[in-house]
Amino acid sequence: MPVDQNTSIVLSDKLRKKLEKKLPEYLNGSSVFVDLADISEIATTYLSAIDQLNSVDLQDHDAVLDILMQIQIELFEHLPMHLKPFEKHLEDLIDLFSSDTE
After folding, report:
1. Measured between alpha carbons, how far is 78 from 15 in angstroms, rounded to an integer?
2. Rg (alpha carbons) of the chain, rounded to whole number
3. Number of domains, the chain
4. CA distances from 69 to 27, 44, 54, 77 (A)
5. Which of 21, 60, 72, 86 is placed for a possible disulfide with 35 were both Cys, Cβ 3.0 to 4.6 Å?
6. What is the pTM of this model?
């Protein structure tokens, strides 16, 4: 189910270390690294929930409901918080790395 928050922090730090020298200051000061890490964790949690849903006893309504609620929270509450700011940051990243290949 939910991933340990420290996992997301570690991933965010790794992404920052890898990318920060290449990025302009406004992106380094943005939420781009946290958004990338949290979107990854949301995807991991979602995939885990799907695996659980595939193996749960459908007679155990509480277990099924817990899994479905986790999917709902991750996809419709947590993910949108990161997608909105990340959309512009991703466009900027694409532009930045596209200009390097031209």
Report:
1. 20
2. 17
3. 1
4. 33, 16, 15, 11
5. 86
6. 0.84
CA dist 6 to 3, 39, 50, Å? 8, 14, 23
C-alpha distances out from residue 20 to 2, 36, 45, 53, Å: 28, 13, 27, 39
Cα–Cα nearest to 12, from 27, 32, 33: 33
DSSP assignment of 46-95 equals HHHHHHHHHHS-TT-HHHHHHHHHHHHHIIIIIHHHHHHHHHHHHHHHHH
Residue with tokens 């899994």: 67
Domain, as residue range, for 60: 5-101
